[in-house]
Amino acid sequence: MAASSPAHAHVKWFAPYIVGAPPQPIAATLTNLWFWTGIALVLVFFLVTRAIEKSSAGETILSGMDRITDPLWNCLDNFVRVVIAAFFVAIFAVGGVYLTPDLKTPAEWVSWTQLLIAGLIFSRKTQPLAALGIIGLWLLALRDYDVFHLLDYLALGVGVAAYLVLEASSNPEWRKHRFEALRWGVAIALMWSSLEKFAYPDWFYPLVEEKPFLTFGMPRDVFIPMAGVAEFTMGFGLIWTPLVRRLSAIALFVIFNAAVYPFGRTDLIGHALIMAIIVAIAADHTREVHFLPAVKRRLAGVPAGLAAALVIFVTGYWGLHIAIYGIEGNTGTASGERLTHTPNPEHPHGMHGATATAASAATAEAAYRAAMDRMHGPMMQGIANVDPDQAFVLGMIPHHQGAVDMAEIVLKFGKDARNQHLAREIIDAQKREIGEMREWLKQKNIPQP
Description:
It holds the Pfam family DUF305. InterPro entries: DUF305_CopM-like, Ferritin-like. The protein is an all-alpha fold. The chain folds into two domains: 11-325, no CATH class; 354-443, no CATH class. The protein contains 21 helices and no strands. The protein is globular and about 85 Å long. The N and C termini lie far apart (52 Å). 40% of the residues are buried.
């Protein structure tokens, strides 16, 4: 418990990202000492847990957990359905998103569809329609977003939809697998998304700089791979034997809850569904092991199963990325800032204009030149206005944005601590003044640049 990793939400909630960018070679992870240290520690935990589970103490522990969670277990279906409905009411209230705050849409009718899905969940006759609606929202998001990005949400969405269909079934043989569908959905989602910490560790750097307490004082390049191992292996644990999966669920619940306070309500809404399913897994009294039971019951099955999971997911992640984008990747042209969590104005770390170029630029010089090229045209157009007051504001907004872009570039490429501090002060001041100038334009009914 003392050495447990701090909470991490999905990285794309907090940092800019380009899904098509080439991932870090897998060899960099396979030669990372801290990756293997994390794997070794988790294997010890799993093996000890399995050894206890196979002994007479195992059933005693599980029975004790059953007694504690009996009140929830006796109404677990109601709990899961209420949370699913509450989640869709919450994203309806947020508005302008498909399934999470990460997937934005201007279509107002999508929000009303989410409210309809919430209403359909409370009757078994209409639960399959709610499941169809969830899959439909995923397909709509697929139309607007990169397919590789949407794979992060596929397993969870399918798992929830499958639960609603199975829970409504009158066939007891089908219905008994409803919680298993949820477990597999969350497990696959966690294992897949955890690979970002190995493929794109730089996505985490702004988050670690903004909230250094997350690492508990560990160097970022030590913490990030070990955090990735923790997320992958705890996800793997959800599909293993009863004691392993319940302890993994408890650990994940603590981790996800710890993220709520520092990251706020948006994080709670975005991860509420996963957190509720994790609670359901911890409260699940079933002892059945349906997939490869003989392997899971053996101690040797733990390292074999974990190794197989790593091979399958790593091959799938890197292989699919190459199949979609090619070996060199494809950064494309940024169509806007891809962030889900609104950046803290005191610690901005989003991609703005030239900073998006900086993320893929080979050198700081290339990024600075792109920032200046981006600034020059709008600034010259602004100062050409015949009204000197309007010319001042319309010219200064792109000028200030250019300063912000340069400051963010030095945060990416620079190393000097004083420059880093100065850059953050420039960003704070220039953004505040941009806001004041935009407010002036709004009061004067002048079109925004």
